[in-house]
Structures are given as C-alpha cells and as structure tokens.
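Per your request, structure below.
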C-alpha cells in the first residue's frame, strides 16, 4: 500500500504545506533521545486533515464534484473538506452539530460550504449524511475511514522520514486511525525497522483496547482535552490496517497531555 501514499504525495504536494520538522535540546534531554516533531499545526486549516481531504476529493470526477461532496464533522475535517472543495471547484455540504464552536462554524462556512446542523442528543451525523447522499447523489468523504483519506494522511510521515532520516520509533496520535494507519504504511515503505506506536488519551482508549484484543472496542464521548481523538471507534478500513502495520499502542493521562502542551508552548522557541 505504500504506493498509495507516494501517489497521494505527488497529488497534494503543490497545494499542501510541507510543514516544518522541529527539534529542541531540552526535549531531547528529557526524552533521552533525539526527538523530531512534525508540526502539522502549520498545515492548511491548522491540521493534517487537509492532506487526506484534498487527496480524496481531487480523485473525484467533475460530475461527482458538481453534484456535491458531503461529510460529517465539527472540527478539522469539516474545514479541510470545505477548503479542498473550494480549491477544486466542488460543492461542499457539512453535517455539523448545532452547538459546534462558533469559530469552527465560521471557518467552515467561510470556505463556502453549506452547513447542515443537527442535534447531537437526538441525531446521528453519519446517518444524516448517508441519507442526504442517497437523496441528492452526494459523494461521502468520511473523516478517516477511507483508503484515499488514509493515503493522504500518510504523506505527513513520508515527509518526516524524508526530512529527518531513518527513525527508531514513530509515535502517532490516534482518533479514528487515519493518520496512524497512513503513517504506519509510510513507515513500512521507508523505514521497515522503525517501531510505529499509536498514542491515545487514557480516557479514550478504544483503539488501544481494540489493538490488544483484536476485537473492535468503542468509547462514548470521552472527556479528554485532546478533542481530536474523541472518535468512538476505529473504522472498517483503519482497524485492519492498525492491526497489520502498527507495532504497539500506548495511552497517556490528561495531566501528561496538558503538561506536554505547556512544555511545547513555553520551550519550543
């Protein structure tokens, strides 16, 4: 599957930012190792999600783009799909909870997307999107569970290996598993001896439990500060890929996450 990541990189490299790889001596001292950080917070829309969204939507036909692309997200994927559609001349429809943060609603709408609001207490965003897609002929571009999304997300790791060289270990955050599985595929293609380790919040450990038992586990709206990892379960595409390509899964506490963010804010200068 490494060829899909390579093809995705060729497809997106002219439009996605090649984000910086940063280091810090203090971080190396604390970790007892040389640490490289792939800073996807400098990516378009502020997250790696643009990579997968653009890779997937760029492969749709003109007719499919004209009919419309639909997804369900309240955060980074919503903005990524909206921006990719704007750049590619596609119509974007986003199913979003009515209580989504105003700044995210404004950003998504600012890229020209049509937003369909729903009540999280009574509605199922995926079911709503699937119903609208069936009714209007929209193409669904899911947040993570699609081979073209996975390949696009894997380009972040591909660039990291190109810029930093061979690595002993690759630590990747995990929500729905798109970034993790894509990065693991890139690792196997570029650095087979590198251990790939997925990282989850302790209170949102569905992927860790799924990985260790080989059976899909779920978690319901976990109360973690790492809101991008609140996905309730791995997908039909990502779960088998995680089992095949990832070496281990580990969890971190909320205190550890907060301390890490604080450290990066004050010391990554």
């Amino acid at each position: 599957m490494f060829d899909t990541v390579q093809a995705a990189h060729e497809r997106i490299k002219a439009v996605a930012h090649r984000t910086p790889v940063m280091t810090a001596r203090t971080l190396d001292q604390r970790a007892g190792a040389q640490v490289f950080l792939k800073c996807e917070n400098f990516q378009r829309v502020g997250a790696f999600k643009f990579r997968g969204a653009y890779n997937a939507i760029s492969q749709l036909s003109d007719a499919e783009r004209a009919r419309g692309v639909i997804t369900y997200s309240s955060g980074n994927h919503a903005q990524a799909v909206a921006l990719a559609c704007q750049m590619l001349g596609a119509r974007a429809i986003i199913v979003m909870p009515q209580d989504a943060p105003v700044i995210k609603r404004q950003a998504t709408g600012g890229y020209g997307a049509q937003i369909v609001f729903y009540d999280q207490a009574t509605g199922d965003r995926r079911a709503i999107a699937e119903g609208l897609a069936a009714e209007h002929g929209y193409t669904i571009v899911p947040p993570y569970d699609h081979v073209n999304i996975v390949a696009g997300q894997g380009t972040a790791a591909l660039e990291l290996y190109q810029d930093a060289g061979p690595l002993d270990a690759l630590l990747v955050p995990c929500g729905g598993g798109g970034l993790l599985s894509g990065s693991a595929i890139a690792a196997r293609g570029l650095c087979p001896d590198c251990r790939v380790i997925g990282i989850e919040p302790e209170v949102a450990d569905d992927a860790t439990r799924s990985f260790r038992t080989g059976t899909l586990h779920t978690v319901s709206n976990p109360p973690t500060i790492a809101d991008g990892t609140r996905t309730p379960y791995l997908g039909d595409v990502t779960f088998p890929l995680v089992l095949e390509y990832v070496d281990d899964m580990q969890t971190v506490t909320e205190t550890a996450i907060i301390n890490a963010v604080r450290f990066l804010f004050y010391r990554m200068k």
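DSSP finds twelve helices and nine strands in the chain.

Regards,
D.
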